[in-house]
UniProtKB/TrEMBL annotation:
Residues 76-99 are annotated as: Disordered. It comes from the Bacteria. This is ATP-binding protein. Keywords: ATP-binding, Kinase, Nucleotide-binding, Serine/threonine-protein kinase, Transferase.
Amino acid sequence: MATVELSFSALPVHVRTARLIVTAVARRSGVAEALLDEVRLAVGEACSRAVEAHRLHCPDEPVRLELTGEGRRFEVTVSDTVPGDDAAGGPPAQPDEDDLDFDLGEGTAELGLAVIAGLADDVEIATTPKGVQIRMSWPAEAEATI
């Protein structure tokens, strides 16, 4: 299955475009229609978080997305280039894999991560010296056609 890569400048107006592209790719990857709103909202939250971090720390760097469909999963990775300790005041909290009902504390970035964890079927948040990656995935009913 092919990988779709997308990068956009750190402007809030581009988040809507990213959501539309991800929704179209998710549909072609076999994600159920009933899950497409969850995909769109989760990706919108992740992209908005990345855009805000970039606007504060590195406004000239693009936000990157990678969309893949392997087997019966559709996966989206949103990457920023803001080191974890600089983005939103500290490294993101990692949700417990067995229980996505967790408390991230106060703050917009933490609330966005909680929303993402509630919408995506599986979430992994990685903080590296090069930035933060939020990987989300959903089940796909059919083999991907992208």
